[in-house]
Amino acid sequence: MNAAARVRREKVRIQAASMFERSVPTAQIASELRVSEKSVRLWRRRWTAGGTGALASAGPAGSDCKLSVEQRRQLAEMLDEGPIVHGWDDARWTLARAAEVIERRFGVSYTLRGVSYLLHRIGYSQQVPTRRAIERDPEAIAGWHRGRWPSVRG
């Protein structure tokens, strides 16, 4: 969620707080603010315990990145060099390989999912192979689509 969305959501919670002060029923608040009754009940509990301030945004979710901005820039350079430069015998980056390079270079351990998030954060995305199998037979595929696929599809 970006900062603008957080601000919009916080404004809705502040509106709810003014309705709590007027003892407006939960269902009416949910309807008017176009939110769930469950959210209104949660907000009301927070408001009761800590006032309007308890409904303020807690800031962006998630943990801070383990790598600094400079380390992320260095990582991008390393990835752009390719895996062969870093000791592998083919030109494919995998999450496990990227995690190993990060650990070797920066001494920081990441799970595979964490590496995936990190790579996405610095602008990398999963790629689809550009090569097709040599054994691929376009005529057989077309025949299967004409003959068999309609019965499979129903």
TrEMBL record:
Signal peptide coordinates: none
InterPro entries reported in the protein's UniProt record: Homeodomain-like_sf, Winged_HTH_dom
Matches recorded under Pfam families: HTH_23 (PF13384), HTH_33 (PF13592)
Highest rank taxon of the organism: Bacteria
Domain Winged helix-turn helix: 89-146
UniProt name for this protein: Transposase
